[in-house]
Design brief:
Shape: globular
Order of helices and strands: EHEHEHEEHEHEEHEHEHEHHHEHEEHH
Number of strands: 14
Distance between the termini: 55 Å
Bound molecules: 6-O-phosphono-beta-D-fructofuranose
Strand content: 15-25%
Helix content: 40-55%
CATH architecture of the largest domain: 3-Layer(aba) Sandwich
Radius of gyration: 22 Å
Number of helices: 14
Largest sheet: 8 strands, mixed
Structural class: alpha/beta
CATH class of the largest domain: Alpha Beta
Mean pLDDT: 97
Length: 375
């Protein structure tokens, strides 16, 4: 049998552990030949591949990033010669030319959608869930999250001593896209005083109150962990309204003007959101009279050596993916559910997002601790 592997979307610690897991199980247990495509679906379309033999798979377990390279290109909307084109047919031809019995795509939510489209077009696809955001539906967790959680927690620990020494508010922005797992997890583990996540719209008065109450109680500093997707109650309402109008007018030629107006409002909101954490920090300075500083942790959360947990998870899911390929099971994502590697149909996964439920134990824990959630 022949299998191919690609990595798509943002890089994540544990990708190389997963590539190694798939490749070793495929070669050693199933006697398959394995190739990798460079830079995600783009490299597959351009037929840029490398042989993943024993030597290529050796020494990569502890490496961050992906030895294959990645991109956010979509098969059906690919940048070719300055234009967006549907390259699905070229991709299917390359899969056939390599006689692939399975193409294993390692990615987050966007990749699951692209993978389903390719599967529906006739490609034998298997996916693995990777992202630091932990927002892929149908799996208990994703590889990359644990490493990012450790990095973000370490950053909050370090910010504590400087916030404490200067009697400041420190607002630390964490990644996570539109899900609050990373900010909530690191905020709890790092002892943040306020944690703002996209799932709970915030009221700035409530945040200022938490800071002022801490000061009244003798704590002259506060750490505020804010997820990059966190929204104030007003922004939340605006976004819901714009998204509603975009959904309503989709594909309706007679409402093209309304759609254009909604898109323009979305662009204004997005531009405003780019500066949101700095804006929040400025407002809190004004409202509390305390000095504030902003730290945007950024891509450091995705960099470097994967944690032991992420290596284990990626290796377990990678070897399981090779087993499913050997059985001819495709059209699935290999998820981890209660410690087992289970196949979940791509139809069930694609287009959904796993966000933090309001009654999640981490939320209950934060409330019990007296951590401000901005509501
Ligand atoms: O999905 C992973 C992630 O790191 C998100 O947390 C973040 O919003 C996004 O990718 C950043 O994307 P880029 O790599 O394009 O900067």
């Amino acid at each position: 049998m022949h299998i191919g592997i690609l990595t798509s979307g943002g890089d994540t610690p544990g990708l190389n552990a997963a590539i190694r897991g798939i490749g070793k199980a495929a070669i050693n247990t199933h006697e398959m030949s394995v190739i990798g495509f460079r830079d995600g679906f783009k490299g597959l379309m351009q037929n840029r591949s490398i042989r993943l033999d024993r030597q290529a798979l050796s020494g990569i377990l502890t490496l961050g990033g992906t030895i294959l390279g990645t991109s956010r290109e979509k098969p059906h909307k690919m940048e070719v010669g300055g234009q967006q084109m549907d390259m699905t047919d070229a991709i299917l031809e390359n899969i056939e030319a390599h006689h692939l019995d399975a193409l294993i795509c390692l990615g987050g939510g966007g990749t699951q959608k692209n993978a389903l489209r390719l599967h529906q077009a006739g490609a034998p696809i298997i996916t693995l869930p990777k992202t630091i955001d932990k927002d892929v539906w149908g799996t208990d967790t994703t590889f990359g999250f644990d490493t990012a959680l450790g990095i973000a927690t370490d950053a909050i620990d370090r910010l504590h001593s400087t916030a404490h020494s200067h009697h400041r508010i420190v607002v630390v922005e964490l990644m996570g896209h539109n899900a609050g797992w990373l900010a909530l997890g690191a905020g709890l583990a790092g002892g943040a005083d306020v944690i703002l996540i996209p799932e709970i719209p915030y009221d700035i008065d409530a945040i200022a109150d938490t800071v002022l109450q801490r000061r009244a109680g003798g704590s002259t500093f506060s750490i505020i962990a804010v997820s990059e997707g966190a929204l104030s109650a007003e922004e939340y309402k605006m976004l819901a309204d714009i998204e509603g109008r975009l959904a309503e007018t989709k594909g309706d030629e007679t409402r093209a003007d309304d759609r254009a107006a909604a898109k323009a409002e979305m662009a204004v909101l997005e531009a405003h959101r780019k500066d949101a954490t700095a804006g929040l920090s400025r407002r809190l300075e004004e409202m509390t009279g305390l000095e504030a500083r902003v730290t945007i942790l950024g891509h450091v959360q995705r960099g470097g050596t994967p944690s032991a947990q992420d290596r284990l998870l990626a290796t377990r899911l990678g070897t399981a993916a090779a087993d499913f390929a050997a059985k001819g099971t495709t059209g699935i994502m290999v998820a981890t559910v209660n410690g087992e590697a289970v196949p979940v149909p791509l139809e069930d996964v694609a287009g959904k997002r796993a966000v933090v439920p309001g009654d999640h134990p981490w939320i209950t824990t934060a409330r019990n601790l007296g951590v401000g959630l901005g509501d």
